[in-house]
Amino acid sequence: MPKKPSSQPLVSTEEAAMRRRVEQSAAARALATGGVELPEVNPPSLEGLEVTVPQAPDPSRDALLARFHELRREQAQRRQRAPGEPAALGDEVAVDILGFAHGQPIPSSARLGMRLELAPRPALPGLFEGMVGLRVGESTRLQLTLPPDYPVEGLRGAKAEFLVMLHEAWALTLLPEDNTEFLTRLGRGMTLEAVMDSIAVELEEQLTDALWLEAEQRVLDALAERTQVELPGSLIDEEIRRSWGRSEGRALISMNTPPEHQESSLQAWLSDDFQRQDAERRLRVSLGLRALIESEQLHVTDADLHELLDRVAGELGLSRNDVEAALREDRGMTRTVAETALHLKAVEYVMERAQVHFEGAGEGRAQLGKA
């Protein structure tokens, strides 16, 4: 005999309401769009592809001190604050943040679970100071005036309101700068002078990596210019929708913002000149690389996949076996990894054929370590 259906709902009223909100949200629509037909393009020529990377300034004293401050906090004694305990200046906190101005969400202001030091920041004066005293597990609304140099020109000097949810907080007790235990933990020498010398070397190495990343971006910019294709506005819109849906849209859903605020945020992205230019660049680079992959018959080797898996595992703090096990359980993620590896292979192919010049190369600075 068939089993009688239960009279109890499969999900709670609250969960059903949440599902409806998600299904009706702008972010869900942005991510649920069907396949998009991409235009066919001829492979861009790599002949005479040449870029120059401007010389970067040496690490400043402020940068050295900022890194030293980070190291002191990393070695500090930590105590997690209990639910209901107020946060204090200098704490490390995990917060959700969303800003509003003129009654609408501030573009790119949504942050979920952001970890940071509770300390003043000139970019948003009053915001982080206002979190002092907020209790773990509680939320608040903070009013402030956006500074005259705020990145969005139309919001400079505007009155803004930020919604803040404090999830976790940790009280830090920093060891004295010249404390033997602190210096031993750092492992960078037993004097402050030795530590600062070590930090200077570290920052120079980071500068080298940053310059090569800048070189890659400039080469791909040149590739985008050489990719001859007419991109319809609808395709650029679709690229922006997907980018928004993966980032700010998801954050807005998680914060239970009303659908009209999600729609307003999406429309702000669609009408923003920078977002449109960036989306067009990404599309041109992607189409150009795809054409090169097909014309040059580029393919991914086992060594390419292993290198990528090792990189991912290192960034996640996992072993390669852990990553491979996770991929076996998620076929979609496996495809993503393979596509990423092929994309990196194509970028490497282009970089090997480009001429990159670094200003100041004759001075033998650390930025030339890979030249």
Automatic annotation (TrEMBL):
Top-rank lineage group of the source organism: Bacteria
Polar residues compositional bias, start-end: 1-11
All copies of domain Trigger factor C-terminal, residue ranges: 191-352
Keyword Isomerase: yes
Residue span(s) of domain PPIase FKBP-type: 87-164
InterPro entries associated with the record: PPIase_dom_sf, PPIase_FKBP_dom, Trigger_fac_C, Trigger_fac_C_sf, Trigger_fact/SurA_dom_sf
UniProt-recorded Gene Ontology molecular function terms: isomerase activity
EC number: 5.2.1.8
Reaction catalyzed: [protein]-peptidylproline (omega=180) = [protein]-peptidylproline (omega=0)
Residues covered by region (Disordered): 1-28
Pfam families registered for this protein in UniProt: FKBP_C, Trigger_C
Keywords linked to the UniProt accession: Isomerase, Rotamase
Protein name: peptidylprolyl isomerase
Source organism per UniProt: Stigmatella ashevillensis
